[in-house]
Amino acid sequence: MQTYLRPLLRTLLLILLLGALLIELLLWQIGVSARSQSSQELLLRGAEVRSALETRLRDGIYLSRGLVSFLQSQRGLQEPEKVEAWLASMNQEVDYLINIGIAPDNRIALIFPREGNEAALGLYYPDVPKQWATVQQIMRSQQPALAGPLPLVQGGMGLIYRTPVYMDGAYWGLVSTVMDAPALLGMVDSEPRWQDLNLQLQRLEGEQYTRFWGADLQPGRMQQAMLIPLPGVTWRLVLQQRGEDAQLLLYRLGLYAALLLLLLAVGYLRASKLRQQREHEALRAETERIKNEFISTINHELRTPLTSILGTLGLLQGGAVGTLPTEAQRMVALARRNADHLLKLISDLLDIDKIIAGRLQLELQDMPLDELLRSALQELDGMLAQRELRLEYHNPFEQARVRVDATRFKQVLDNLLSNAIKFSPAGGLVIVQVSRVKAGTHWRIEVSDQGEGIPPAFQHKVFERFAQADSSSQRKTGGTGLGLPITRGLVEQMGGEVGFTTSAAGTCFYLLFPAAGAEL
Q1: Who has greater pLDDT, 196 or 441?
Q2: What would the mean pLDDT of 212-225 be, rounded to a whole number?
């Protein structure tokens, strides 16, 4: 069972690894595109947030600048009632204003609205070191400055916009506009259209930006930052998309779900194929067992009595029981030829089985090729005469030697020669010749006939077991179709090659064997 599952698990694991690699590569490409798109989107949305913040801050700043102009036109606080009336009219346009203080000579002399801000009235900036340092910087630079958020004396957190007032070129005093920081900056946290963003405001302090408002940023996530230059200070707005990209998550889930379905499908199909393979192997093993039993039966039940029959017929032909009548001699000779043919068929069956199973034992020796060929040709006279055929033998290399099993080499030649004789027309010519090929490293032995050639449709089956070019019951020549498969098996086990060429003028089977001994 473990052996059965191991290749299936290896296949599924390989598909899983390749699939995961392709999915992650695809998601990476999608992520790159998505990040580029998200970056552009964050920039656009950041510009929208910055514009909204600047608009709200600008209202308070413009109110302070307007008050400075009004004070300069009124020559200071000579008529406080007019100043308060003007402030009352302007205050209706700024809903996050806490108060506006007017401080001639750096002391708050008027504060609007008074109610709730009484604690700041009369404040003298030199008495408040933290604020006085800022006022001194404003006096030196003659430029307004925005500070905060800072804790206020009257409570809460405020943004303080301080503007110096000059009259006739001389410093007159200070206008301080206090804005409610939570009311003004709270839009960063509460605006519905920005709830999918982490927004953070940072202030430049020295060479670093320090957060003073907004949410925590998630490390490792993409973000965009943009500067907001303000009087006397520089803010930085940082934006970040909240949570994981839902679309990318859906892509990942979908692709891995598809990979899982693919693994299930492949697993099912592969398991079915392996199961069929196991069944096929079991069937083949059973077939092999039956075949072995059949061959064993042939060997013991047919070959043994057939050998005894041949021995008996030989004794009859040899005159063991006296001289036989002519007709009896003809019948005994016919029986012996058929018994010899049957014994050859049985031997062929046993040989092809041994070749396929790799059990055929060979005794390879360096042998003279000419001697091997002449020994095989000497036994053909009767067959040649019966078919009225002629034989030509050409071997200009009498010193040629090959390393073969002599008995099996003769069996190979017998198969090729008997085929050449069998398929040659009456009066035809069978040619056996030897040549040297492959730069002199191999001997080529050819057996040629003048028959009709091998049909094209059968040429690829020539060396298959039990194959016959004409398998009909009316075929001209007999045979089991085992001679050439046995020939190929024997030649290859002796280190040689076998092949053929064919045409309508005849067929040539050739053997290639390496030259043996000193010939190399």
Answers
A1: 441
A2: 85
Output the pTM of the full model. 0.46
Helices (H), 92-151: 129-141
Label residue 151 left, alpha or beta by phi (over 0 means left) and psi (-120 to 50 means alpha). Answer: beta
pLDDT digits (tens, 9 = 90+) for 241-292: 876 556 667 777 888 888 888 888 887 787 788 788 888 888 888 876 776 6
373-389 tens-digit pLDDT: 998 888 788 788 888 89
CA-based radius of gyration for the chain: 55
Query: Sorting pLDDT into bands at 50, 70 and 90, what band is 473?
Result: very low
State how far Cα 515 lies from the chain centre: 49
Backbone angles phi, psi at 195, to 5 degrees: -70, -15
Beta bridge partners of 112: 100
> Judging by DSSP bridges, how do beta strands 401-404 and 208-214 pair with one another?
unpaired
- Token pair of 233 as six digits: 């200070």
Nearest to 8 by CA among 225, 226, 270: 270
- Count other Cβ atoms within 10 Å, centred on residue 203: 20
Tokens of 459: 């040429």
Measured between alpha carbons, how far is residue 126 from residues 116, 122, 133, 410 in Å? 23, 12, 8, 129
Query: CA quadruple 321, 326, 327, 331: dihedral positive or negative?
Result: positive
Cα–Cα dist 367/494, whole Å: 13
Residue 189 CA to residue 277 CA, distance in Å, equals 67
Domains, the chain, in order of start with CATH, read 2-185 (3.30.450.20), 275-353 (1.10.287), 361-519 (3.30.565.10)
CA distances from 5 to 8, 10, 261 (A): 5, 9, 19
Maximum separation of any 2 CA atoms in the chain, in Å: 172
